[in-house]
Design goal:
Elements (H helix, E strand, L loop, with lengths): L1 H30 L8 E7 L7 E12 L2 E11 L8 E7 L11 E6 L5 E3 L1 H7 L7 H8 L4 E10 L2 E9 L6 E4 L7 E5 L5 E8 L11 E2 L12
Parallel strand pairs: 6-12
Antiparallel strand pairs: 1-2, 1-11, 2-3, 3-4, 4-5, 5-6, 7-8, 8-9, 9-10, 10-11
Amino acid sequence: MRVRFAIAALSLLVATPLVAQDKQQICRDLENHPMTVGTWATYNWTGGRTDGNTMRAAVIGKETREGTPLYWYEMMMQNPKRAKDNFIMQMLVPGLTYNPNAIRGFVMKSGDQPAMRIPEQMVRMMAANLGPNMAADIARGCGEMAVVGWEQVSVPAGTFRALHLRHPQTGMEVWLQPTLAFPLVKAVTKDNGMMALAGQGTGAKSSITETPREMTGFPGAPPPHR
């Protein structure tokens, strides 16, 4: 019995720094996670303010500007009970954990309204009100989160081995698998909502099939063509 206890204790002492190393590596991976055109993931929300929503994240294109690769990142939120609140946002960004000030292109479609292309100067003005980037929030808070450990997590998309982290102040919990195109497997948010990976794949295309209209009429905008 003593031998078993000693072996178990030794294993725990060895495992703890290894898990801490895993966390450090995953935090670094989140900050620099590559984006691959065509990859997509869908998430189901239950509970909290977004109960019943389905979110789709996808990388639908790539551009190079001044020698820097930028990616068209699409986020689509849908709820069959609140169809008028459905929206699609497409942002030209340098990476998954983009800062709103780094957005270089923006297209939005709300409900059944026409899709609109927002000029870059307008995007800069509205950057602070674009809403949270969950990937960036997780990456920023990753270093502050406490490690719970590696766990087998079952979600609608399957069962994954993921690192479970918990934020000591906010109580937010995340389960991350860095080998996935979108590393988030599951999250429990501050308002007790749960976000779970429902599907993933490749071949993603733009969810906006119409030609977006150019937005005009904001301060500093060029006059409309006549």
